[in-house]
Amino acid sequence: MKNKRTLFSLVVFFSSFGFLVLLGFNSQPYNKNFSKEADNKVLHDLNTKGIDGSRSYVPVSESIITRSFVYNDNDPQKNQVDPVTSTVFKDLYAINTMQIRSTVIYDNYPPQNDSQVESEFEMETGFEMETELVVESDLEVEDEPAIEDETRIESELSVYSDIGISIAKSYVNIREKPNTDSDIKGKLHKDSAAKILDSIDDWYLVESGSVKGFVNKKYIKTGLPDDELIKTYGKLGVSVNTDGLNVREKPSTDSKKLTVIYKNEHYNVIKLEDDWIKIDITDENITGYINSEYVELLVAFQNAVSKEEEEELIRLQEEEEKKLKNKQEEERIKKETQHKHRDEVDYTEDELKLLACLVHAEAGNQSYEGKLAVANVVLNRVKSRKYPGTIKDVIYQSGQFSVASSGSLDKQLKRYKNYSSKSQLLTIKAAKAALEGTNNIGDRLYFNGYKTAIKSGYDKKKTSVKIGDHLFW
Fold it and tell me: At what angle are helices 368-383 and 349-363 packed, to 10 degrees?
């Protein structure tokens, strides 16, 4: 009987030992030399980053201790977790079988006694650590596709995951409500970016610049990787974060210093080169290199234009076009009214008097250039086959110079001997200069008051030039 009991005890012992081995328990003694400092360095941010714990990596040189446990989803009271365990990360997935993969991090150790240590082993730095227990179960747990975790992590790392780009041929309207009958709040031009706030049927609720509204989805491209967004649609810039930063001719501290830029100044990026950034300093007409350590890299996208901004933009554009047109016209007039010399006209004192009095009657309140131009119209007609061949006949030709028939010319002829004012003396000077060959209007034959000439459409003539209050053509 005693032999049978002994044999039965041995069978029970080895069966129990075998069962423990199958469960993965280790009979090694607890490592008394294990340090809490090493433990504090291990996976300290796993929980905050949402990693599920099914796959863990050891980033430190010290070894760590891990423990296995059994997790029963149906009855939490039956969970088998080591007493010294303070944090557990788990991942359940199986079909007809429940697998439990776990990593246990210890905060409270060493254990009260070696009997609490059911299993332990040391893993070296960089080794992938994973313990696994398999428990037969009727519970059927749906597979959790790994691709969802990868997508989630990639989404968390993407800075511009909510950015959409306009792919309209010219622009797409941003509307107040998600329908084409709604009021237009602004325009998102081609290649402009918008932050997607929400999705409603075929519309995105977007925000871009000062505009917030709805855009039809078919005109917006989403899901672009950050690098493609930045490279294709973004504009790189830098903001200086130090009090004085040298700009070098080449990407090296030994290179020639071109200038110095200062804190909070912004510059456009031309090129990125390892630890150096080539920038454009437009105001100083300089391009050079700066150390990337002392600047913050910025990315700007083209934004939408609101209805009000567009109206103001059109107004400013019209003003600029008008200024440009006026400047071009001034340059043309300046070029075409430059003093040119032609053959001197033989004239008498009476002809000088008559010409000067006509000029003063027609342009007495004009500048010297305006007086000279009127005198040259008379002389151009004298030279033209369309008009009489003398100064007197041209001036008194019927229907030409209104002052000749109104009495204004006669009045000036009576005053001529007493011309002494600055304007009168300037008139005589201009008439004499014209007779001596100074010409500032070319071969133009006509002139009239500027406003009257515009009403008649003479300003549309290619040869028309404005001098003072008169238009000549």
Answer: 120
Into how many domains does the chain fold?
A: 4
**β-bridge partners, 93:** 99
Residue 335 lies in a domain: no
Distance CA 437, CA 435 (A): 6
Cα 103 to chain centroid, rounded: 47
Q: What is the pTM of this model?
A: 0.44
Residues 6+ apart with CB under 8 A from 152: none
Q: What is the pLDDT of residues 352-369, one digit of tens each?
A: 999 999 999 999 999 999
Residue pair 183/176 in contact by the 8 Å Cβ criterion: yes
Does residue 394 share a domain with residue 363? yes
In a domain, 333, yes or no: no
Domain with 71, as residue range(s), is 24-136
Q: What is the largest CA-CA distance in the chain?
A: 166
CB atoms within 10 A of CB 107: 11
Question: What is the gyration radius of the CA atoms in the chain, in angstroms?
Answer: 47
What is the pLDDT at residue 173?
A: 97
Task: Give SS3 for 458.
Answer: helix
Residues 459, 355 share a domain: yes
Mark whether 449 and 347 lie in a shared domain.
Answer: yes
Tell which residue, 418, 398, 446, 403, has the closest CA to residue 353: 418
Q: In this structure, is residue 466 part of a structural domain?
A: yes
Neighbour count for residue 404 (Cβ, 10 Å): 20
Q: Write out the H or E segment, with its range, that includes residue 220.
A: strand 220-221
- Rounded to the nearest integer, the mean pLDDT of the chain is 76
The whole-angstrom separation of Cα 334 and Cα 330 is: 6
Tokens of 150: 């990868």
